[in-house]
Amino acid sequence: MGMCLPCFGGAADDVVVTPDPDTRRRQLAEAAEKRQKETTYRGVKNPEAVERKRKKQEEIEKQEMTTSVSGGGGLRWQVG
């Protein structure tokens, strides 16, 4: 009896201090980012190479878009 009271023994050491809401929010955001990265690169041996390849592909697509918009260098229809 009486062993459940926090004033006796080391029960005060078992109390978990909860962080303030801003710290908790930041920790949750970091954990979510980590989980997202893990699932994104799941099964990929070299994630850096995949990321480089993706960025290069985006640059090529962007370059194609600017070329086609500004130059209009594609085929032209002629009615004759």
TrEMBL record:
Stretches with biased composition (Basic and acidic residues): 23-40, 48-64
Can the keyword NADP be found in this entry's annotation? no
Mark out the compositionally biased spans (Gly residues).
70-80
Note down the stretches annotated as region Disordered: 23-80
InterPro entries referenced in this protein's UniProt entry, alphabetically: SVIP (IPR031632), SVIP_metazoa (IPR055366)
Domain of life per record: Eukaryota
The entry's cellular-component GO terms read: endoplasmic reticulum membrane
Keywords, in A-Z order: Lipoprotein, Myristate, Palmitate
Q: Does the keyword field hold Lipoprotein?
A: yes
Q: Name one GO biological process term.
A: negative regulation of ERAD pathway
Give the protein's recorded name.
Small VCP/p97-interacting protein isoform X1
Organism, by scientific name, is Xyrichtys novacula
